[in-house]
TrEMBL record, chains A, B:
Domain HTH arsR-type, residue spans: 21-115
Protein name listed in UniProt: Helix-turn-helix transcriptional regulator
Range of residues in the leader sequence: none
Keywords, sorted A to Z: DNA-binding, Transcription, Transcription regulation
UniProt-listed InterPro entries: ArsR-like_HTH, HTH_ArsR_DNA-bd_dom, HTH_MetalResp_TranReg, WH-like_DNA-bd_sf, WH_DNA-bd_sf
């Protein structure tokens, strides 16, 4: 991932604790694909897509340590796949579906459908 | 990428020099996304998609050394994105479009469309 200017958190973030997010124009397809190419991160994205709302990290059960979890969420945020916004003491995660759909129409939906199809296939085997 | 059984080359390969390819049932979404998440590999995939036929490695100009080129093609082959088949002394590369479309409908097309859109956007900036 190349270094690019990062904007601060989107509207709605609590003042004072803002994490860096790429502006839509700085989101790169290869970074998004890399972010989605890890099973743990894909689990997070599927959970956020299914929830259709903000979730905390602990809302999504993952088979990894807390520091590894933090790492995976950071990769997703820095690639432009999710927002991470502090609301009070909670860090809330959400899919950047509008940005991704505008930049790469159909991509997120096809990845989510592919993940569903594979999960069904693996379950059947 | 986890180790999985690899099948030998698809039909049409010259006998004696077969490279390992994953069977369709062993192609994993995260491996495919990882293979597509590199700019050089994405260039190869776009070239193969545009050509709609087999190409040699030297048919696709890349800004990397020959050994790096070989590495990138191997990653694409082992992920199930391309076939690499020796025909006489030439190693011919082709997209596994039918396999990918069957496993992950719409995924390859949306990635190719996203890559085109991004290239246009970057050219315009």
């Amino acid at each position: 991932m190349t270094a690019r200017p990062l904007v601060t958190a989107p509207a709605g973030a609590a003042p004072g604790r803002m994490l860096a997010h790429p502006a839509p124009a700085d989101i790169r397809l290869t970074d998004v694909l890399h972010a989605l190419s890890d099973p743990v991160r894909l689990t997070v994205v599927r959970a956020l897509a299914g929830a259709r709302t903000e979730l905390t990290c602990s809302d999504v059960p993952l088979p990894v340590t807390k520091s590894t979890t933090t790492h995976h969420y950071r990769v997703l945020r820095e690639a432009g796949v999710i927002t991470q916004i502090y609301r009070g003491t909670s860090k809330m995660n959400a899919l950047r579906r509008d940005d991704l759909d505008r930049l790469f129409p159909g991509l997120l939906d096809s990845v989510l459908a592919a993940a569903d199809a594979q999960a069904r296939r693996m379950g059947e085997r």
